[in-house]
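INFO batch 0412 | record 1 of 1 | parsing
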Amino acid sequence: MTRLDGPGDDLQAVARELAGAVDSLTTLWSVAAQGAALRLSPHQLRALRTLEEAPGLNLTGLAQRLDIGPPTASRLCDRLVAAGLLERDAHPHRRREVRLRLSTQGRRVLDEVADRRARALARALAGMAPADRAALRRGLRSLRQAAVEPGPAAQ
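INFO prediction complete | emitting tokens
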């Protein structure tokens, strides 16, 4: 059963409300990213973010993290290299392996996108009462923790 005892504990209703908020934020997030000087697809941005977090991945590693096939990852990387956002380097110990890393321009683009997204979120948050922002922060921390360590009610 998803109904608990306290107010706001109808888990299905809360989940639907959260899903609606996520949809709205996803739109805000995407629009902010598309306003950057260099417009990239969500897949291109995700690839760049992945390589920012794990520089030096090879093509297979990138494909696995993006959950795409190696041929698709290869074409994606080809486009990013052509745009000057990604560089390929030979692995120092394995001649046939190529490592992927962001170029200086790729880092600039990710910084610009992150800045635009933060400003868009800040504008949305500015429309909230301070007490609501504080409650949102507490709720997000709790949700993030619950997603990492689900409790017995989630099972």
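INFO post-check: The chain has a mean pLDDT of 87.
INFO record closed
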